[in-house]
Every structure is written in structure tokens, then in C-alpha cells.
Write a structure and sequence with these properties.
Layout (H helix, E strand, L loop, with lengths): L11 E5 L6 H12 L2 E4 H14 L7 H8 L4 E6 L2 E6 L11 H11 L2 H13 L6 E5 L2 H5 L5 E6 L2 H14 L7 H17 L12 E4 L5 H15 L1
Parallel strand pairs: 1-5, 1-6, 2-5, 6-7
Antiparallel strand pairs: 3-4
Helix pairs in contact: 1-9, 2-4, 2-5, 3-5, 4-8, 7-8
């Protein structure tokens, strides 16, 4: 137990934006360039959704999800420059990236009790070191003291193309690019209009539209601003 009140608190770089904007690629890249642990907050909402589905909870029943979410137990381990998550001792892997999870994660992540639980987990990760955290509300709500914040965006077409290509590469392409785009837009709508911590551009965020930029070009912009803040 820490009795001095000097618990280690790593610094945070926040990368927010909609699905398919390239947050994971950029957060991982910046993490490895600057020696920060990569944290994927969306994966925690996906884990909540997977756990709820496995427990036969109706993801659209906010009261049932709120009651269930406090019982989900996730452990954290540092692996390959990132914080990895263990659910019942196992990493969930691609089980959290299926179309079924995509369809249910937005209603689950709307529930305030779910957001409180995920935020508690995220806050505790600061004890692990300096972090680069990707999500929707990281710079605006979860870590208002982030030392640098970015809002990564791209056109819906580019985002759907990237997500579809990722699914093809993993051999998980159950949907056409058009269907991916429709699902992504539906999620964008829920994520940006929900009452609690909607997707928004945080005050002071550097906004980057990556539609016509390469990964290296985006990394260079994020690296320059981050180095100035570290
Ligand atoms: O980044 P992602 O697509 O894996 O996120 C999955 C869902 O989780 C997304 O639809 C919205 C939600 N989410 C959120 O509400 N807040 C975050 N900080 C991260 C993700």
C-alpha cells in the first residue's frame, strides 16, 4: 500500500477519433518511437461486450449491462510495449473484433456504469509508466491532464476501406466494404450523440485528417507535437 501519496503517475498522450481513422497504427508507432506504453481503450469496451454476450446479457438492456459490468474482471500485463488484457487469464484476441461485437459495442459503451469501470481501469494503468492512449474521450474526459492530445479523422470511405482491408488480411471479412461503411457510420452516430462522454474534439487537440496522408506522414506530425510536450 502506498502511504505517502506519491503513487507513480505516468504521463499521457491522448489519441481520439472515430473508427478506422488509424488511431491504433499511430498510437502503436508513437509508443515505440517515444517509449510509451500503448493502451487501446476501445478494446476494454469490446471486452465488456464480449463478456456480456457470453453471459447472455441483452446489450441493449442498459440496466442489465450496468448491473453486470461491475463483475467483469480484467487483469493487465505489459507486453511488447503495450498494455495487454487478460480476461479469466486469457487474452481475448480477435474474439473482440467480430461483426457481432461491432454491432453491440456502442450500446454497451453508452452505459455510464460501463464507462466508469473502464475509466477506473485506465486511470490505474498510469502506475505502469508513460502511456499513449487511444479512444473517443481520452483527451476530453478520461485524462484531462494529458500532455498532448490528437484528434485523428478520415473520410467515411477511407475509414471503411481500411477496416475492410484489415478484416480481409485477418481472414475475417464477413461483410462487403459497403456494409462495413454502414456499420461504421451507425457506430459513429451513437458514439458522437450519446449523453456520457461523446466522441468530440478535445480542447487544444491537434486535428489531423489522414484521408490523403501516409502512415509515416501522420506519425511525423504526432511525433513532433509529442516530443515538444514530453
Ligand atoms: O476504437 P474501437 O472501434 O475499438 O472502439 C469500440 C467502441 O468502443 C466504439 O464504438 C466506441 C467505444 N469507445 C468509447 O466509447 N470510448 C473510448 N474511449 C473508446 C472506445
Amino acid at each position: 500500500m502506498n502511504t505517502t501519496g506519491n503513487a507513480k503517475r505516468g504521463r499521457v498522450i491522448a489519441i481520439d477519433g472515430p473508427s478506422g481513422a488509424g488511431k491504433s497504427t499511430i498510437a502503436r508507432g508513437i509508443g515505440s518511437r517515444l517509449g510509451l506504453l500503448h493502451v487501446d481503450s476501445g478494446a476494454l469496451y469490446r471486452i465488456m461486450t464480449l463478456a456480456a454476450l457470453r453471459a447472455s446479457i441483452d446489450c441493449n438492456d442498459a440496466a442489465a449491462v450496468a448491473d453486470f459490468c461491475t463483475r467483469v474482471d480484467v487483469r493487465f500485463v505489459v507486453r511488447n510495449g503495450a498494455v495487454a488484457y487478460l480476461v479469466n487469464g486469457e487474452e481475448p484476441g480477435d474474439a473482440i473484433r467480430t461483426p457481432e461485437i461491432n454491432a453491440n459495442v456502442s450500446p454497451v459503451s453508452k452505459v455510464p456504469e460501463v464507462r466508469a469501470k473502464v475509466n477506473e481501469w485506465l486511470h490505474s494503468m498510469r502506475a505502469l509508466g508513460d502511456l499513449v492512449v487511444e479512444g473517443r474521450d481520452i483527451g476530453s474526459v478520461v485524462f484531462p491532464d494529458a500532455i498532448a492530445r490528437f484528434y485523428l479523422d478520415a473520410s467515411p470511405e477511407a475509414r471503411a476501406r481500411r477496416r475492410h482491408l484489415e478484416e480481409v488480411a485477418k481472414g475475417m471479412a464477413a461483410q462487403s466494404e459497403e456494409a462495413v461503411k454502414a456499420a461504421l457510420r451507425a457506430r459513429d452516430k451513437i458514439d458522437s450523440t450519446r449523453k456520457t462522454a461523446p466522441l468530440t474534439i478535445a480542447d487544444g487537440a491537434v486535428v489531423i485528417d489522414s484521408t490523403a496522408l501516409s502512415i509515416d506522414e501522420v506519425l511525423a506530425i504526432v511525433e513532433e507535437h509529442s516530443r515538444a510536450a514530453l
